[in-house]
Amino acid sequence: MKTSALVAAVAVGALATALAKPSVVLPAGWIQSGHPKADCASSVVIAAGAPTAKVFNIDCKSGDQGFQTLMQQIAGTDYAGKRVRLSAQVHGEKIVGWGSVWMRGDSGQRMATAFDNMKDRPLKGDFGWKQVEVVLDIPADTTTLSFGFLLDGPGRLQATSFQLEVVPDTTPTTGQLGLPVLPRQAENLSPP
């Protein structure tokens, strides 16, 4: 992943964490987050033909430019130093931008020490229920693990049957280690 794409992805993840909204009634552990001006609705809905009776649902209006995510944040203790897979069953309708399942490991104040949001293999268009996954090597100093699914731009993305599990080291990874440690001091405060 190019550095600029990784920086943008981390910024999206940071914004998602910072803008968590408790307004939608979701099962315990789940939060809604995203761009404050996104014209999206998140919910749990009954879905005929889905792998489970109810599914998580993100529906963004035509012309929407923002993103919405449904996510969880947990302590990284049980996953630190291990290879971890997040998988889910997903269904998409008229996805114009992109959707994904995503996972991020943070180490204290260092955000995204491991990250994958499927930006290099986005969910687009219309598709029936299928399993997707992200697999990351979670650094040993990871303190927080964040994960969920997101929709950026118009369309509808549904997800259910999430699984978060430690997998053998022989399982191929899909993401990358995150950004290097941020500098401690500001640089180039005026143009050179």
Quick take:
The chain is mostly beta strands. The protein is 8% helix and 51% strand. The protein has one helix at residues 3-18, and strands at 31-34, 40-46, 54-60, 67-75, 83-107, 110-116, 123-137, 144-152, 155-166, 176-177.
Description of the molecule:
Mean pLDDT is 86; it is low at 1-12 and 14-22. This protein has one domain: Galactose-binding domain-like (Jelly Rolls), CATH 2.60.120. The protein contains one helix and ten strands. The chain has one helix at residues 3-18; strands at residues 31-34, 40-46, 54-60, 67-75, 83-107, 110-116, 123-137, 144-152, 155-166, 176-177. Strands 1, 2, 3, 4, 5, 6, 7, 8, 9 and 10 form a ten-stranded antiparallel β-sheet that branches. The two termini are 29 Å apart. The longest helix is centred in the first third of the chain and has 16 residues, at 3-18. The radius of gyration is 17 Å and the shape is globular. It has 192 residues and is mostly beta strands.
